[in-house]
Amino acid sequence: MEALMQLRLKKISTKSFILIFSSINVIGGFILGAVVTIASLTSPADQGAGPLGPWAILIFPVLNGLLGLATGAFLTWLYNLLAQFFGGIELEFEDNP
Q1: Contact 29, 65 (CB under 8 A)
Q2: Domain residue limits, the chain
Q3: To which H or E segment does residue 96 belong?
Q4: Three-state secondary-structure class, residue 65
Q5: CA distance 87 to 76
Q6: What per-residue string of b and e applies to 62-95 under the rule 16 or more CB within 10 Å gives b?
Q7: CA end-to-end span of the chain
Q8: Which of 67, 70, 77, 90 lies at a C-alpha separation of 20 to 30 Å from 59?
Q9: How many Å is the Cα radius of gyration of the chain?
Q10: For residue 24, which of 54, 55, 67, 53 has the smallest C-alpha distance?
Q11: Cα–Cα distance between 33 and 24 in angstroms, integer?
Q12: Residues 86, 97: Cα–Cα separation, whole Å
């Protein structure tokens, strides 16, 4: 029988969470920006995304990254606040030699 180890996540480092969260947002913004850019370059001029279209591949990652910074900071603050009252998230790991 395998021994299970139960741990509790009581606090999240704001810096590490923001780095991961904003990086994910930058990647998502790049993908979305690429789709909008390709769509604007391949569609007729009267049906395109307007003047933003070709620049979306540069603008969306920057805006999403900044949004990720602000959202990540808020989410870590909120989690750390609520974890004080509710004890955090319980995580279960198996001890596998």
Answers
A1: yes
A2: 12-88
A3: none
A4: helix
A5: 15
A6: eebbeebeeebbebbeebbeebeeeebeeeeeee
A7: 12
A8: 77
A9: 20
A10: 67
A11: 14
A12: 32
